[in-house]
Amino acid sequence: MDTARPPGPRGHWLLGNVAAYEKDRVGFLRRHHRDYGDVFSFDERIVFTVDPRLAHQVLTATNRDYVTEPAPFAGTSAPDDAGEAARPWMGARRALRPALADAAPMVVGMDGRFVALLDDALDRTAGREVEVLPLMLDVAGRAVAELCLGEDAAGVPGLLAAVHAALLPFEDAGYQLPGWIPLPRNRRFFRVHRRTSETLTGLVRARRAGAAGTPPRDLLDVLLAARPAMSDASVTSALWTVLIGGHGVPAAALTSVVRELAIRPDLAAALAAEAGPWDGDGRPGDAAPWGGDERPHEGGLPGVGGAHGRNGPRGVGGAHGQDGPPGPEGIPAGGGCPRARLPLAEAVVREVLRLCPPAWTMTRVACAAVDFGGWRLRPGEEVLSIPYLIHRDPRWWPDPDVFDPSRWPAARPSPGTYLPFGSGPRRCLGAAAAMRQLTLATSRIAQRFHVRAPDAAAAVPAFCGRLAPAGLRAAFHPVEP
Ligand code: HEM
């Protein structure tokens, strides 16, 4: 094992690489990937990797050798025992997993509701040019609040919006100042955090005191029925994790979908044809493809004349586009799901998540001295895997910068080469629900609206906390039923 640090740019004598990174984050990473290879140091504490094998290794060793990114103000010193640190959340996660699996009743039950929330938001703004990300934050916030809290969700979407706004300054900054400094943004974050915790705690207590839902109506019921029993504090904290996870990231993905629909009218037309005519009845829960028969999709994609036909990604030393089980982080095939009836919409979502993964970097902190591809990391050092660059690496993806939904569903990404939902024990808990909802949303928007966004091509990705087209504005013009 090499004891030296991975190579990397020295940067400014005082500021190191912070200023250069802040000026052009992805340009900085691309440049140093080219100059230093798949692993390079940012400073004494942070290492980047663009190696899918190492990214996969770090993600799968989480809770053992690494912990996940600390929350703002949690400090960066890594606990000695990663498993112990993760235990309360992992217990909640085990309880929630079956309820969030593809085709689980609660997830299926959200299909129609999600489309109704989307319809409502788009109908309210129909024909007017609006900023897309806030609109999608509203839809995602309402959807995840209902999934978590059912009838008690009122008021929570507003809190989520406040949390999102309070977190933005921390996500935009490449570094954090200590929480005890009374900066306005620190005070604001603590205020919103306290208000949200108090509201959630109140809801948890009230529900525990009342009648339990059998079968569980929402994720709060699931958590309260978990065995061994969870404390109110653990239930509140688990709800917080799901609410935050299911808000900003899916909204960023939806915004990227809207951008593609705006700049690709032919694709939008093909999606509308796949969805079938809009009958204007306003009851999306009743009509195909949101309900009814759910056969797995087996054929090719209608309406996409892609550059690659059936090109799969080039595996990491593995099979190239062969049929086989998807890698562990691959999105499950569409059986038992409305995605099965909307293969083009699903392929568009997969491709959007490849080119614009909202979680464009993923951070892990080493808990002990660990071997990292021959380098030695000390406890407390951070590894940042970069899905954005891995997804655009010609070694794993032919014509990687080309938006080509026709690579799916044949693509069989090898471990680490396709990470929109992460990998390993901390892989996205809402991945199945998210895939359903994004697919439905893509199809529904194309079915019901012509999306016009004159600045769409210029709305370049903003590489801050989450990757989303910066400042995208669009008008959704209703299609006549
Ligand atoms: C397009 C939609 C989504 C994407 C791309 C996405 C992506 C991700 C990624 C990459 C992670 C792992 C981050 C890491 O390893 O550092 C994650 C974690 C998580 N996501 Fe999602 N997510 C999406 C939607 C959702 C939804 C709808 C929910 C809730 C219903 C959700 C709940 C969570 C939770 C609870 C975690 C934390 C898992 C853990 O730490 O054990 N996500 N998500």
From TrEMBL:
Compositionally biased region (Gly residues): 300-321
UniProt superkingdom: Bacteria
Cofactor: heme
Binding site for heme: 428
InterPro entries given in the database record: Cyt_P450, Cyt_P450_CS, Cyt_P450_E_grp-IV, Cyt_P450_sf, Cytochrome_P450_monoxygenase
Disordered: annotated segments: 275-335
Family: Belongs to the cytochrome P450 family.
The protein's name: Cytochrome P450
Origin species: Nonomuraea montanisoli
Lineage, broadest ranks: Bacteria, Bacillati, Actinomycetota, Actinomycetes, Streptosporangiales
